[in-house]
Design a protein that fits this description.
Layout: H1 16-37, H2 40-52, H3 56-84, H4 86-105, H5 113-142, H6 148-163, H7 165-176, H8 180-183, H9 185-199, E1 202-205, H10 212-235, H11 240-261, H12 276-305, H13 311-339, H14 342-362, H15 372-395, H16 402-442, H17 447-458, H18 477-508, E2 528-531
Antiparallel strand pairs: 1-2
Helix pairs in contact: 1-5, 1-6, 1-9, 2-3, 2-7, 3-4, 3-5, 3-10, 3-16, 4-5, 4-9, 5-16, 6-13, 6-15, 7-13, 10-11, 10-16, 12-13, 12-15, 12-16, 12-18, 13-14, 13-15, 14-15, 14-18, 15-16, 16-17, 16-18
Length: about 525
């Protein structure tokens, strides 16, 4: 059975290409909200924290809870899309996401604020987890293997480019009200639902029971392990709860893997990891996403604290990243169709590693003009490799399991992002605190007093509390410089991670274009047609 089974009725029709294009546009619009919200809150974090009086931990969880919920429930979203229908799950996901966005924008002032925004950010993540695997599965089902690279290059390139709307739009909306960054999702959701109704995407799905035990294992396992890393710089590594939380989460994920191997209808068919290309691409995606999303937070914090930029300027700064990203994502997609995944994934990872290294080497100069080209190069590298890596992984699945395969890859991507955000945050704060203490000692403050002052002072910058106004005049020069040193270490680590991704691609991937037969065999059970109603 072809990967485009649901579109056999369009074969030979002059309107087939137009219909496919409309389906692609509908899915891009649907997932645009999830891309925008991965970055828009980071830009507005200082003002949200200031106006709602959130703690440093609270504002970090307002960001992380979204990523964590997506990581925990992507497997469920992928499974539901393959068993209940891809179009149905896209619609449900859009409605849940938009509803949660509206409630985030209605966060009340007072004691309920912190719990409210964290909870509904998590609900947003749930909506994204239900929507995204189904949307990507529809695109993959619509285009055949030989044209899929270019189609998904447009999907990731345009959707990724729309992520640039997050920093830019977030900056302008925050000057009006930070609540607007959530309300902007509502018209996007309405447009996406209208396009879905017009496009009426059709795929095949296979009804099957949901593995709720497996869902509980993976959701709790992800949550516990990330929570441990998240709290490590708040409670300290000496606190036994940190190690216990991380160990318990890791143990549950191991139990989940073993449990799924014996299921007839697993939440995730772990047998797919026996496919070498799929396993390697998941590893590469995990490494690259440990860089991609945290980069926005640390770059925006650097712009606010070290450069003294307001939210508008810091948003425009990140637009340079997507200038490179959008151009090379199209190149990467065409290379995937012509020569296979290895070349664009390897080349993109190398370019990104160089870009992040140059970026790191320039941040302590506190001069934006020196950062422009390193930022563009970093974006170009990520744009070239992310789409081909993701597409090549999903291509390894059966056409009736694209949602499940997407759920797996997105679980890996978002889990890695959440984990990396927590770990890199710990690194950055530790370096920042050490540098501030050294600076105070140089100014004549006794070491003990300097250490105490640094520990107390740097907590204000923890996870978004750096500069609500974006005015460098209110921040001492040594603080700006010390913060830049903390960010520098983070970007050097990011460079190293992308170099590791390049090495994994070089050693683990085979050259050449994937053969159609590798997509996987179809199951014997008859599928059910899925169409918008």
């Amino acid at each position: 059975m072809s990967a485009t089974t649901g579109f056999n009725s369009d074969a030979g029709s002059s309107s087939a290409g137009g219909r496919k294009g409309l389906v692609l546009a509908a899915m891009i619009c649907a997932v645009a909200m999830t891309f925008i919200d991965q970055t828009i809150v980071s830009i507005a974090a200082p003002k949200i924290q200031s106006e709602l009086h959130l703690s440093g931990t609270g504002v970090q969880w307002a960001i992380t809870s979204y990523l964590l919920a997506m990581a925990a429930f992507f497997a469920l979203g992928g499974r539901l899309s393959d068993t209940l229908g891809h179009t149905r799950m896209v619609v449900i996901g859009v409605v849940v996401f938009a509803g949660a966005s509206a409630l985030c924008g209605l966060t009340p002032n007072g004691s309920l604020a912190q719990a409210w925004i964290i909870v509904f950010r998590a609900v947003q993540g749930l909506g994204g987890a239900l929507m995204y695997p189904a949307a990507l599965a529809i695109v993959v089902n619509t285009f055949d293997l030989r044209s899929r690279g270019r189609a998904l290059a447009l999907f990731f390139g345009i959707a990724g480019g729309l992520t640039a709307v997050g920093p830019v739009l977030g900056g302008y909306l925050t000057e009006w009200t930070w609540r607007g960054i959530f309300w902007v999702n509502i018209p996007v959701a309405l447009i996406s639902l209208l396009l879905i109704a017009i496009a009426r995407p059709q795929t095949k799905y296979r009804p099957a029971p949901i593995d709720w035990v497996g869902l509980a294992l993976i959701a709790v396992g992800v949550a516990l392990s990330v929570f441990g890393f998240q709290q490590s710089h708040i409670w300290g590594w000496h606190n036994p709860a940190i190690g216990l939380s991380i160990a318990a989460g890791a143990a549950l994920l191991v139990v989940f893997f073993r449990y799924e191997r014996g299921r007839t209808a697993p939440l995730i068919d772990v047998a797919i990891f026996s496919n070498r290309a799929f396993l390697v691409q998941c590893l590469i995606l995990g490494i690259s996403m440990a860089v991609f999303l945290p980069m926005f937070f640390f770059a925006s914090e650097y712009a606010a604290v070290s450069l003294g930029q307001n939210t508008q300027k810091s948003g425009i700064t990140l637009l340079y990243f997507f200038l490179g990203f959008m151009v090379t994502s199209q190149i990467g997609g065409r290379l995937l169709d012509k020569v296979g995944a290895k070349r664009p994934v390897f080349m993109g990872s190398v370019i990104a590693a160089v870009g992040f290294y140059l970026w790191a080497s320039k941040v302590t100069a506190l001069d934006m003009s020196q950062l422009t080209w390193p930022i563009v190069v970093s974006g170009a590298g990520m744009g070239m490799m992310v789409g081909p890596s993701n597409t090549d992984a999903v291509n390894r699945a059966s056409s009736l399991s694209y949602g499940e395969a997407t759920g797996i890859t997105q679980t890996v991507r978002n889990y890695a992002s959440s984990l990396s955000f927590a770990v890199l945050g710990t690194v950055m704060i530790s370096i920042f605190q050490s540098k501030v203490a050294d600076s105070l000692v140089q100014q004549g403050v006794p070491r003990a007093a300097a250490n105490n002052a640094a520990a107390a002072g740097t907590s204000a910058f923890n996870s978004g509390g750096g500069s609500g106004s974006g005015s460098s005049a209110k921040i001492p020069l040594f603080i700006q410089q010390d913060f830049a040193h903390g960010v520098q270490y983070v970007f050097y680590i990011m460079s190293g991670l992308m170099a590791l991704a390049a090495l994994v691609a070089l050693v683990g991937l085979k050259g050449g274009v994937q053969a159609a037969a590798e997509s996987g065999a179809e199951p014997e059970q008859a599928p059910v047609a899925d169409a918008a109603t």
